[in-house]
Write a structure and sequence with these properties.
Radius of gyration: 20 Å
CATH architecture of the largest domain: Alpha-Beta Barrel
CATH class of the largest domain: Alpha Beta
Distance between the termini: 32 Å
Largest sheet: 9 strands, mixed
Number of strands: 13
Order of helices and strands: EEEEHHHHEHEHEHEHEHEHHEHEHEH
Helix content: 25-40%
Shape: globular
CATH topology of the largest domain: TIM Barrel
Amino acid sequence: MKITHVETIPVSLPVGDFVDGFSKVGAVPSPPRFDAGRSRLRRSDPSQQIVLSNVIVKIHTDEGLVGVGEAACDATEPVRNVKNMIDRHMAPQLVGENPLDWEFLIDRVSWDAPRGATRHATAGIDLALHDLVGKALGVPVYALIGGLRRDRVLASIEVPRNTPQMQVEHCAEYYEQGVRGIKLKVGSNAYLDAESVITVSERFGPQISLRADANCGYTVKEARTFCRIVEASGVKLEVLEQPVAKLDLDGLRAVRDATDIPVEADESAFSLGMVHRLIAAGSVDLINTKCAKASGIKGVREWATVARAADIGVVIGTEWGCAGIVAAKLHLGAALANADPVVEFTEIMIHELLHREPVVLEDGYIRVPVLPGLGIELEEEKIERFRLRDE
């Protein structure tokens, strides 16, 4: 079997609002306009909606098998750059090769691992190759990366920063839709943020998994204050993600030493080398990893292996994917030995997915696909409807 060509399709999907008009990805009803070429979240001129832009990747073979992946985009790797990187640099190195050499091929197309200009594009190739190899061998991707340790994962959904009252209402809206995992966005005011956590816990109690993400928003003192108030309330907060600045490893360790709430690194964990530094510094209890950050499934496995050697878990984080990324996270959450049982799936609640079959929440859980490859089939009509024509 040989790779014959690589197809890239940029797509752009509108992001929804809560029923009260607040954006599901921000704390204001009418977010400012974003430049489509510089950000994955932008205003679209016709609809004035925030949209998500990604690149669908299809790797075709001479035997008719097609592997489907997805590359995220952001301000550092906008849509045009990701598409051009795959089309002009990566695809020529793949054509004529045997996809069963997938790990070697992933290494071949990527040359700038530490948060460089190829991590998103590489992830798109990585996902498509994993999907293709799984289909060729007749096995799900989880069988390629560790086996089925769990057949479902609890989905955690992010709720953007707002007043405590509004965050509770937004949580309630998600709860009514079957969500049982909540990650509150905090990091603005330690006292109000703690009030939000306490209020949400009082409203839903042990029926939900409750976590918080400060996105580098606190000083060490503010993070300690937040943790002290939450702990004094008796609320069980499962995780505090990235309380301080991403390069402040000493600050992360100071927060971790001051609280019993597990501290997770996200922005700080931007490369395999940084994962090693975080662990060596004793700064965190958990590492947030994503295909986009780690250059794909292979990279996430490498991060998880390093973390596992130090008896540290990994959280499979939100990437706002619309196709292969969603499925890839299910396989990673199911197969990695030190993967947290809660996997972040904000994307399933904020915009439409390109899957033919819908992602279903069963008491807050999502079942892991068991079909060969990533186990999803894309809806071509949807892809055409959301195709980004100007990239």
